[in-house]
Amino acid sequence: MESWTEGFGKKGGLYRRLRDACAADWQAYTWHPFVHGLSDGTLPLPAFRRYLIQDYLFLIHFARAKALAVFKAESIEAMRDKTEAIRAILAETTMHLRYCESWGIPEAEVRATPESAETVSYTRYVIDRGLAGDILDLEVALAPCTVGYGEVALRILADPNRRAEGNPYQSWIDTYADPGYQAMAKAAAARIDALGESHGGQARFATLSATFAEAARLEARFWQQGLDAAEGHMAAYEKAHG
Ligand SMILES: Cc1ncc(CO)c(N)n1
Questions:
Q1: Which of 9, 49, 88, 187 shows the greatest Cβ crowding within 10 Å of its Cβ?
Q2: CA 225, CA 233: separation in Å to the nearest integer?
Q3: Which ligand 1 atom sits closest to the C-alpha of 55?
Q4: Distance 149 CA to ligand 1 centre (A)
Q5: Angle of CA points 174, 172, 91, to nearest 5°
Q6: Rounded distance, CA 16 to CA 13, Å?
Q7: Distance (Å, rounded) from C-alpha 152 to C-alpha 176?
């Protein structure tokens, strides 16, 4: 078994059962062609730019979803963890703004960018699962994001095609390979395992796994919007220069 699959959740726990129940969707998300391009450094810059600006907007709403998890948390420890997660998400956006600044895109312009359908659908889906359900429904909707990016980073580090020197996406990779981020991802998987036991994960598995798989597919769509933007860019370029 690969090292990254061992990293999150415990054997037989709810997190791994959710992940394994949507193996094809999970693979399509965590080893998407966009991720290959981050890893070997060949991702076209317009694809990354499109992704990163939308991801900044995504994180604002993701912080709101985590705030809802503070509200729905059933222990002070969980409230503390979630509060820390909100702080981490807001800190993560400084990486986004640094990239944008290096491209000459000021923060005001990033903020004024309209959200894409991919961004709206994913963020509002997660918030809706949390509003309609309890803390377990919400944590399961959040997990592909928090834990998934932890796994994506580990997959990149293990990738034989990885460009380790002079990779333009290195600071993106570092953000999620960071021990602090990895610890947060592990804690999120462990909380799902614990909630699975305390909140009837077995009896609720059909609903929970549908939520988890939906979020994994929305994550894959989120990468794909970057590649779609680059395709448009290439077509326009070829038209202008053809
Ligand atoms: C779409 C997406 N999923 C997960 C993360 C990790 O925080 C992120 N920044 N963006």
A1: 9
A2: 12
A3: 10
A4: 6
A5: 85
A6: 6
A7: 8
> Nearest C-alpha to atom 7 of ligand 1 is from which residue?
146
Q: How far is CA 36 from the centre of its chain?
A: 16
Task: Provide the total of helices (H) and of strands (E) in the chain, helices listed first.
Answer: 12, 0
How large is the angle between the packed helices 179-198 and 76-102, nearest 10 degrees?
140
Residue whose Cα lies nearest atom 3 of ligand 1: it is 145
Q: Which domains does the chain have, with CATH numbers?
A: 41-241 (1.20.910.10)
Q: Give the predicted TM-score (pTM) of the model.
A: 0.94
Q: What angle do CA 13, 15, 18 make, to 5 degrees?
A: 110
Which residues, including other chains, have CB under 8 Å from residue 139's CB and lie 6 or more apart?
Answer: 69, 188, 191, 192, 195
The pLDDT tens digits of the residues spanning 24-40 come to 999 999 999 999 999 99
* Residues 49-89: tens digit of each pLDDT: 999 999 999 999 999 999 999 999 999 999 999 999 999 99
H helices of 114-178, where? 117-132, 135-158, 170-177
CB of 59 shorter than 6 A to ligand 1: yes
